[in-house]
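Late entry, written up from scratch paper. The run itself happened at the end of the previous shift, but nothing got recorded in the book at the time, so transcribing now.
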Amino acid sequence: MRESILTIPISEIMEDNCTCPICKMRDMLEQRTVEYIMGAAMMEPDVRIETNKLGFCSEHFTMMRACKNRLSLALMLQTHLQTLNEEIFSGKRLFEPKNAKKKKLSEINTSCFVCSKVDWGMERLLKTFFECYKDASFKEQLRNCKYICLPHYDLLLSEAPNHLKKDELELFTGDIKNLAGEYAKALYDDVSHYCSMYDYRNTGADADWGTSRDSIERAIKFLTSRDEL
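Output as recorded:
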């Protein structure tokens, strides 16, 4: 497959029999966006206008709190709360529609600056991902991935018809079904083995847990696309 500035991020993600490649795309975009917003961008007026309006979701607040620059987060919270007070909790303005504040409240509760940037980036990465799939070597790379998580299996099934022709679509659907389905079966076996190890007959110093010890965490990751918080 010929490399370009568009395909390089996809190629890097697909290296070394990766875990769910769509998770890795999202994680990369999230990390870059959080680093961006917690750095110098925090002082850019156009960025602050967006963060004041959109705020952040719980997951991305957690990521931001994990960064060392707590002052950046505090400053963004300060002006976001100021906007909230002015637009939601202030008195009704002249000529303001009856349900305007309720509408703004709903928008604030369902919006996130990081999510909006990640969604924008994912749309473009997925377009390139499907273009890459038309190459035989990329097909093989995808088939060698460890799994596709359940939420991203759903996403790919929904998006694929918009990007692939019928013959490629059938191949792609089969490939990702194998990746998600075989992993789900393996997870079931590991979780079942984990449960069986609590039977008194399986206790003792020589008890064989096999690959089941982290099966709960791996199952949650597969079912939600997220590691445990």
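The two ends are 37 Å apart (CA to CA).
(Scratch paper discarded after transcription.)
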